[in-house]
User: What shape does this take?
Amino acid sequence: MARARADTKYVFVTGGVLSGVGKGITAASIGTILKARGLSVNIQKCDPYLNVDAGTLNPAEHGECFVTHDGAETDLDLGHYERFMDIELGQSSSLMSGRILREVIDDERAGKYLGKTVQIIPHVTNHIQETVAKTAKGFDVHIAEVGGTVGDYESLSFIEAIRELSLKLDPQDCLFVHVVYVPYLGASGEFKTKPAQNAVRELRGLGIVPDILVVRSEVKPSKSIQAKLSLFSGVDKNAIVLLPNAQTIYQVPLTLEDSGIGDVITGRLGIRAHQANLAAWKRVVKSALTKYRKTVRVGVIAKYLDNQDTYMSLTEALRASGWANDVNVEIEWIDAEALEKDKKNRQQLEGLDGVVGLPGFGSRGSEGKIWAATYAYENKVPYLGICLGMQISIIAMARRAGLTKANSTEFDAKTPNPVISTMAEQIGKENTGGTMRLGDWTCVLERGTAARKIYGQGEIVERHRHRYEANNSYREQYEKWGLKISGLSPDGNLVEMIEAPGHPFFVGTQAHPEFRSRPNRPHPLYTAFIKASLAKR
Assistant: This one.
């Protein structure tokens, strides 16, 4: 019996050989070239971790926690999806095993399985399929990336779910993209395809035959690799694309398009679409590769230095703002702990054109961050405080004005001057997930402020991820400290933005505007900061 044609086409992206091979960038790039053909495209990350969401994952190990407009705490790949495809994703685009298992168990407790034995197959796999199909509804194409590496125990339920889903669809309604890695042995000057062959064999052993192979490598291999992999994997040579490391990740969509893989996808899926229009994307790549005459040095005061993915959206926002100002942005990573431990380390701030107070949690490095904010204010260095960075700047200015023990209750629960404190309804929940102010929140900007001028409007919406707030008991003292509240929540109860009048640029926001920045449309707050940094230089 013929299967019914689906309204939505599916592209499933898996990875082999090793983790971090580039599945997220590949999935985002496929979405980009399909959107460039006039198709409506949605995208989703299926993450095998047994967490309910990414809110409690260690950023030093897993990279940044990206927050969607509706408050989902997600894997950083959703940031890639949004930046590449210029879309806003929601809760349904992030699917973690913990959430699936919790929902299945909740259904079992509610008696929805009518006394049946609840098992991975079919109950968990069916629930995954239902969630994927629900997220895909209404789009021409839905891309689902399965995190991790094929062969991981925790990813098996997702692999099985997409295999089963493909059987329910017409063959022209879905295809599988497998991202593999080919190492290069410098000693012998050879590329070794055996790990990639084994990765394909492992996927086939789980019942999935890949339609497309994306071959990652450190350097560009010869095209003979395609013929060899085609022979040993059974994937058509024209459906194998070589993807060596690029000068910028924004080149990947163009590389995929030049390889003809966009036509392979639309052909296999039976999609009629116009020719890809990537003119705007080519301008992004040109901007990213341009070496501008001027350079600004921006110091980012960080405490997670082992993995720069921790601040991925923020650094991308800085770079994109540099392109908009025709300037190179040189990012200097400055260890907040080192600043507070040894005064000699503070020389790192000399000669900087701008300082960014980064978001984060916990007291580690807080004194170094406070010192950096104070330095930026006193030396007229442009300062941009993001989330915790804004809170740090308030503490710094309060201390300068005489409240020498001013602090956040996050850092010192017994501080006599808690200028930053927990919202009343969240006391006692400081170390748990999903209890923060998350997602889109509206801010009303004060007339005549730098913030109002930067945004060019009186009311803005930005994404948030924080638990601590500016203590309203101290608001009347801000002017004495040298600060002005430039943005409040619509009810006037929450301080959203602050600035220092008379300073070249000293602005803080409780929000994460970097989440809404795009490579072709950088965020105005970051653009204004880079402009001020350039003016200082």
